[in-house]
Amino acid sequence: MKMIRYPSFMQSHHCIKPEKYPSFLFLFLYLLGFLGQSPVDAAVKKYQFDVQMKNVSRLCNAKPIVTVNGMFPGPTVYAREGDRVIINVTNHVQYNLSIHWHGLKQYRNGWADGPAYITQCPMQTGQSYVYDFNVTGQRGTLWWHAHILWLRATVYGAIVILPQPGKPYPFPQPYQETNIVLGEWWNGDVETAVNQANKLGAPPPMSDAHTINGKPGPLFPCSEKHTFVVEVEAGKTYLLRIINAALNDELFFGIAGHDMTVVEIDAVYTKPFTTKFILLGPGQTTNVLVKTNQSPNRYFMAAAPFMDAPVSVDNKTVTAILQYKGVPNTVIPILPKLPLPNDTSHALDYNQKLRSLNTPNFPALVPLKVDRRLFYTIGLGINACPTCVNGTNLAASINNITFVMPKTALLKAHYFNIPNVFRTDFPDRPPKPFNYTGVPLTANLGTSTGTRLSRVKFNTTIELVLQDTNLLTVESHPFHLHGYNFFVVGTGVGNFDPNTDPAKFNLIDPPERNTVGVPTGGWAAIRFRADNPGVWFMHCHLEVHTMWGLKMAFVVENGNTPELSVLPPPKDYPSC
User: Where is the Plastocyanin-like domain (predicted)?
Assistant: First the structure.
């Protein structure tokens, strides 16, 4: 029986077998694994990630999948705010691989960020790379995932950053907590399906199921034993750390009979509010408190997609079970009522409720003065493809530029001034204004291509408006910026109006995130201070759109001193 590879600070106290590990992360784990350490020991958390194939059975089908340490999902990374984390990743599979630590800012240390060909060349078969980074000024729920091809379909896991000792949560201390990681499952080999789709010039197939902690739940065939169950006691408060690790689906999540109180998004505390459901785009995280104040029973926790555009999605519902202690397993659980898949109003209303906590201890440092304003249109397109069966392939673009991945890591090219790898002329606005969200545009859908980046002076304050367009179709896009959090100062439906919409911006307590949902046929305005030098990827977190080129990167220049400049690369930095 393979042991879970927990970090050394946990291994020194107890080894835990996966089958015996309780569904909740009990508070004694905190006490033993964290509080019982000396300050010196607690400052460094070490992990070994062995990327290896494992045969896994779901939905009556067995197949080999790529995993970390043979686990699906992979191991949770635990740390405290202020810790140094050292993760040695060894690649034992046939694919090139890199891992991204989603939401960690990696100050001056893009070498540890992980996106392949952006900040590093991937690890080839048999190679290792040490991701060595500090957790500075962050606490909460984040996650990690493969950042090359579609390998994150199975290579992903949670990151739990606890507050520093003596700094309690700004909400009632929960009795226990657990991770709820939402994902997708394909019966076939994902990379094979993607390659076949690219040869055709068509979209890859939809997933066959959604999963909670790798399990689709009893509404799917052969899945009674593949159901995640949380046992709870009545009259307690529990913290759920919920992560949307799905590749292509925004997801509603709810618990039958129970309200949830949102207290954190993307590892930033929020003003608490109570809701029957939450909405997460791919890449986003949400922490909620749940009071077990209902009659003892078995209650389904469920997730189902949100899609309010004419785009096909996997619309099946994944379930897990919240089971009160003492209730027999034979009791049939109650299903929650989630919004309909195309319920735009509920989605918009939910996102409007999100506000930063904005207290003296956790201020919302929104840039009030803007140095540079950017306007980026998001669109789909069709380009000629002589090698594709269809003669064309689908494309996606920002400001009509479909990003071409380089063969040398951009951060390496920037740091060592390697010529002819990228250009720094990414436009601040689209080449030609048009009625972005009017009738669908189905002609002249070609895009320009190139490895074009936007150069930013250190400490510039940026306002970026992301505008969806009706090129082929409107669609919601979850956009993720590496290396930074940003403030979502405004969103709207239709075309952004630079004359009237800024007056409605929330500059007091806007939500602070690392991934923002751009509404279908609408826009989102974000602000951030470019105080982290390096090359930082920005892309749609729908894997199908990223594959088609819906991505770009910022080159943030160094500050005036070595302390405000990119660190040197590590000695084991992979080469292409």
Answer: 51-164, 177-326, 425-559
